Fold this protein.
Amino acid sequence: MDILTLIVHNKRKEVAEKKELYPSKLLEKSLHFNAPIVSMKKYLQRDDKTGIIAEFKRKSPSKDMINAYAKVEEVTIGYMQAGCSGLSILTDEHYFGGSNKDLETARTYNFCPILRKDFIIDAYQIIEARAIGADTILLIAEVLEKEEVEALAKFAKSLGLEVLMEVHGEEQFSKLNQHIDIIGVNNRDLKTFKVSIKKSLELIQMIPDDFMKISESGISAPESILELKKAGFDGFLIGETFMKTSDPALACREFISEVEFASAAGAVSKRL
């Protein structure tokens, strides 16, 4: 059994247990459940933002512990002060060291779009996402059937949430539907964990023009942002590059400064 199959297998058991402990009706009583949504799509189009969606995660199946000591409130505030377009918060506990509390804390301290990063396989998790303050949910095409993607996306939209569908190969574009807002190309193979931004550059031609486009994972150099932006990407999800440092917010700020410098240098070079 590969790691992705194992994660989904365990997630089904986890969701079943949560349904018993925290019924949907209880989640719907959350203060966040009917709060206005902050649009990730709109933030990605803002000229005063970078397009970077900065991620908070403590560990991953491929690297184990990345940063055990980072505080979600400090890191996420720093991310947004640096000029990020949004936040991605890992809520999977077993494999990524996250929690719903992390997202709730990020929501408390930030007025910005927040993506709930998890393995969503059940409508219950979408109700849960709304209850903890998420604005956007992630649907991973590789772990869902076409009918499941459409049903889950439609349900998310009925709750006011935006939907990011993540793809890893061209065959998964057949699962696109009218309820999807953003397409994310994951540069990491979820079965082997090998990473290359070439995946994004190869697959962007498959993404219809009416969808926002995000490149995810393996982005560690400012030059990669410029290359991906030139190719047509609107957003860039970055986590480990920042989180592996002792001060993720500072690393993010310095990275964005380097991107802005490289972009300005490129613009001058074109004029000469």
Notes: Residues 248-271 form the longest helix (24 residues). Residues 3-271 form a domain with the TIM Barrel fold (CATH 3.20.20.70).
